[in-house]
Amino acid sequence: MNHPFDVEIFFDGDCPLCRREMNFMRRFNRRGRVLFTDIAAADFRPDTVGLTQDKLMAEIHGRLSDGTIVVGVEVFRRLYSAIGWSWLAAVSRWPGISGMLDWAYRLFAKNRLRLTGRCDTHCAIGPSRPGL
Predict the structure, then answer these.
(1) Residue 123: band (very low, low, confident or very high) from pLDDT cuts 50, 70, 90
(2) Is the pLDDT of residue 1 over 50?
(3) What is the separation of C-alpha 45 from the centre of its chain, rounded to a whole number of angstroms?
(4) What count of other Cβ atoms lies within 10 Å of the Cβ of residue 52?
(5) For residue 127, is pLDDT > 60?
């Protein structure tokens, strides 16, 4: 199943930071190699992706043209490559940098709703842990 895009990005359009990042990236999508899909849109159906809404909300996902699902920092690498920033994707794979980016993204994803002030409607705040 091949499509005329390199990667489809599934992002939370209700997240101010996520929305700003995707709007910025859209400006560089001159060749149309990236599809941007807002998982917060009223007409979005997670079953068309084969994932649950909760899973999609937990961290960023992407779908490659062959149907392969990618998650986390790899989504951004695919996005950057598709818009012509392959050099940035390459740097993000360097030893040390790759691990640091993966760690930082997981920390952000885990706390994204809290950081964007949306825990009152989208997540249950558990006991606070030092350092998070």
Answers:
(1) low
(2) no
(3) 17
(4) 11
(5) no
Statement: residue 118 has pLDDT above 90: no
DSSP annotation of 7 reads E
Domain definitions of the chain by residue range: 7-119
| Phi-psi group of 131: left, alpha or beta (phi > 0 → left; psi -120 to 50 → alpha; rest → beta) | left
34: three-class secondary structure by DSSP? strand
Q: Please tell me the total number of residues recorded for the chain in this structure.
A: 132
Amino acid at 125: I
Please provide the DSSP assignment of 51-101 as one string.
Answer: S-HHHHHHS-EEEETTS-EEETHHHHHHHHHHTT-HHHHHHTTSTTHHHHH
The residue type found at 12 is D
**What pTM was computed for the model?**
0.82
Cα–Cα dist 28/36, whole Å: 12
* E strand or H helix that includes residue 104: helix 97-115
Per-residue model confidence as pLDDT tens digits over 12-35? 999 888 899 999 999 999 999 999
